[in-house]
């Protein structure tokens, strides 16, 4: 596409560039209406016990069903939502939606399991998180046991003491706290020391390297597993795609697996089938 520049001449710019900057513009513009237009949806990625594949949890992962762009992945719009501050409303929507679905599943007689929600640092800095959570749990009649909040290490790096007290109140209420993307942030050990989480999620970047027999990354995985065991925390390995990785994690006593090897994130209806079945087998390709 030819673009006019200031001097009345034309220069070429790639279609891709135009498309992506237009897309960014459009997403930023349309985000404000996305909640009221009911354009967000949640997919669920199962978490299974390493030993027997039995379903023990799931992570709620947001997608945006945009009228022009189709299903937009969170990697594309969550960073934008953090900049334009829509993330707070989006997070509160996810919390309510999960409570609503848990109620629906309970009423359908499905054996419900804890659902993990990603709560970004910026939401902890704004008031009202604890009250919102408490209200939703009460409105939908959900036991706090069924909610798990995934926070990143940078949440715990934040020096505002209100962040700690909010996390503590959530823990006291009975909501479990998991540290997401463990090992990739700046506060791995400090975060555990200052605030003992219930669970840590080993990031995919470490899992990816298992097959390469990378001494450093495999060492980090084993050290994390030992640390978790001695502090009585649960561990989830994220991004497990291959059988070899599963074998390594099983051998080293990792409790729980989340990854494409067992299941990609799936739509609600598919997730209901998985809940009913209660277990998954590794998809050996
Ligand atoms: P995350 O919280 O670390 O979520 C895990 C991501 O890894 C998900 O991507 C999941 O689909 C992907 N994944 C899991 N197993 C595998 C695997 O075996 N192979 C590969 N290649 N990928 C795997 P997704 O759904 O695109 O989400 C990306 C990130 O977007 C999430 O990373 C999270 O940081 C953010 N996100 C997703 N949903 C929400 C949300 O509701 N709220 C907020 N604040 N952030 C969200
Ligand atoms: Mg997560
Ligand atoms: Mg993660
Ligand atoms: Mg991640």
UniProtKB/TrEMBL annotation:
<feature type="domain" description="EAL">
    <location>
        <begin position="24"/>
        <end position="279"/>
    </location>
</feature>
<protein>
    <submittedName>
        <fullName>Predicted signal transduction protein containing a membrane domain, an EAL and a GGDEF domain</fullName>
    </submittedName>
</protein>
């Amino acid at each position: 596409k030819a673009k006019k520049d200031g001097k009345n001449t034309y220069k070429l710019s790639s279609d891709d560039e135009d498309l992506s900057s237009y897309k960014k513009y459009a997403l930023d513009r349309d985000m404000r209406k996305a909640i009221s237009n009911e354009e967000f949806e949640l997919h669920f990625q199962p978490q299974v016990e390493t030993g027997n594949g039995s379903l023990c949890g799931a992570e709620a992962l947001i997608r945006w069903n945009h009228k022009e762009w189709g299903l937009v992945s969170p990697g594309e719009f969550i960073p934008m939502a953090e900049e334009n501050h829509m993330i707070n409303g989006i997070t509160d929507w996810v919390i309510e939606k999960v409570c609503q679905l848990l109620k629906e599943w309970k009423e359908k007689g499905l054996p419900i399991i804890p659902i993990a929600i990603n709560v970004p640092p910026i939401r902890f800095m704004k008031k009202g998180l604890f009250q919102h959570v408490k209200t939703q749990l009460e409105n939908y009649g959900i036991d706090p046991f069924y909610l798990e909040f995934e926070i990143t290490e940078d949440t715990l790096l934040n020096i505002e003491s209100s962040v700690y007290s909010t996390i503590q109140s959530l823990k006291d209420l009975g909501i479990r706290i998991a540290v997401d993307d463990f090992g990739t942030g700046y506060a791995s050990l400090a975060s555990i020391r200052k605030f003992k989480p219930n669970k840590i999620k080993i990031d995919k970047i470490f899992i990816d390297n298992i097959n390469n027999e990378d001494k450093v990354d495999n060492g980090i995985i084993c050290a994390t597993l030992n640390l978790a065991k001695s502090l009585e925390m649960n561990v989830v390995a994220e991004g497990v795609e291959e059988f070899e990785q599963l074998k390594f994690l099983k051998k080293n006593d990792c409790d729980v697996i989340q990854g494409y090897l067992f299941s990609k994130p799936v739509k609600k209806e598919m997730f209901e089938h998985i809940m009913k079945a209660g277990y998954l087998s590794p998809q050996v390709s």
